[in-house]
Structure formats: structure tokens, C-alpha cells
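Review form for a predicted model. The reviewer records the input and the model, then writes brief findings.
Reviewer: anonymous (R2)
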Amino acid sequence: MADNKYSVVILAAGKGRRMKSEELPKVLVPLAGKPLIGHVLGLTNRLKPERTVLIVGFHKEKVVEYVNSLGMGKIDYTIQEEQLGTGHAVSMTEPMLGDYSGSVLILSGDVPLLTQKTVETFINRHYSNKDDISVLSAEAPEPDGYGRIVRDIEGNLLEIVEQKDASEEEKQISEINSGIYFVKAGLLYPALRKVKNNNAQGEYYLTDIVDVIRKEGGRISALQFADFDELQGINSQEDLERALLYINNK
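Model under review:
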């Protein structure tokens, strides 16, 4: 691992409408006997970041109670009161990390299969490239529903386009955004302040910081090396069944 210091931000505010569990936050849905967020925090604990900030929202008290029961040391919380998108969620961490001199690893609380080896490889490649922001990507056999990685003719990352905003041509791209980012804190929050919500969902997309930082001359990369199964988000009962099958077959 590189010696560079970083903190972790985890998105855990969602409702999980398609999980058929109205009263249970999505990150508390169990997988292999442990809530999704338990898998993600187990990984975070092994990474030993300087600081961990959890963004909570829907039934936040249930999430906080569970996380505190794990006894994993100091975890900070910030609240996303309104579901205004992933960019808005991460902006809620600025009071805690706005003056931070290191980098920020952004994880999703509903991506439970990510391994320590993959994250450490991702971080080390980011540092080797001297990137300002890196996003972890993968080739998806069925990319429907995921944001697409758009590259120029030389293979350089241009932007990330969400499924609902993608053209028919962009929908043919099979390289997808995992939702996992590594970015300098000093660039993250100024970029978030420039993100607009003029898109199909009327939300502030975290993906848009890539385009903001690129246009300001920052070094950006989409690092494609991980197994898609490891990066899959849990958004439905079908996803949950697929993830369980993956765990049982490892």
C-alpha cells in the first residue's frame, strides 16, 4: 500500500425501494447473515483509513444503532435529510473533510463484495498515475442500469453518463462506473459545489465531478481491472440472490 493518507466516505442514506422492505434501510438488508453495510465496514476497518464518515438518511437511527454495535472504533456520521442524489450526499461531508489535506475514498454502502485487494490496487494505481481523481470501472455483461464510462478515441476518460441520460450510442458501452472513487479532498468539495441537477432525475450526480475536474485541468482516470461481480450494487432481490451465489461459490 502507498503511504499516502486518506479517509473513507460511505454512502448509506438510501431507501432501497426495490428491496421489498419498506421499514428497513437498504444498507441493513442482510446478505449471508450480515447487513450490507456490515460487509462494507468490515472492508473499511481492514483498510485502516484516517477517518470514516458514514452518510445516513432513511431510518438513520437504525443504521447508526447497528454500526455502533459493531464496536469498530470512531465512525463519524452526517445526515442527508433529502434524497437529492449522490453528489448532494457527499457534499454533506464537507463540514468534516472540507479542510482535509489527504484524499477521500468514496464507497457505496450497498456494494458488499468489494475486496481489500481490489481497493488497495485501485489506490496504488491512482497514486502511480498521479491522478487527481480515479473511478473504478469494469466491463459488465449486462450494463443496463449503470452509468457508462465515456472515453475519447485514445482511451482517455471524458465523462460518466448515467443510464437515464445516455444516448442510444452511449448505452452500447459496456464499461460501467462502480460508484467507487478516489479523489483529492481539496478538489472534491469545490467540484461538488459546481455540480448542477439539470438531468433526467433532477439530482446532483456524484459522477459529474469527473467532468468538472477534467475541465479544470485535473488528471482523471477510469481504472478498469476488477471483476464486475465484485462491484455489483444491491438494488433488488435478484441482485441479492446473485450476490449470495457469488459468495457461496468463492
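Findings: The chain has one domain: 6-249.
Further findings: The chain is about 35% helix and 25% strand.
Recommendation: see findings above.
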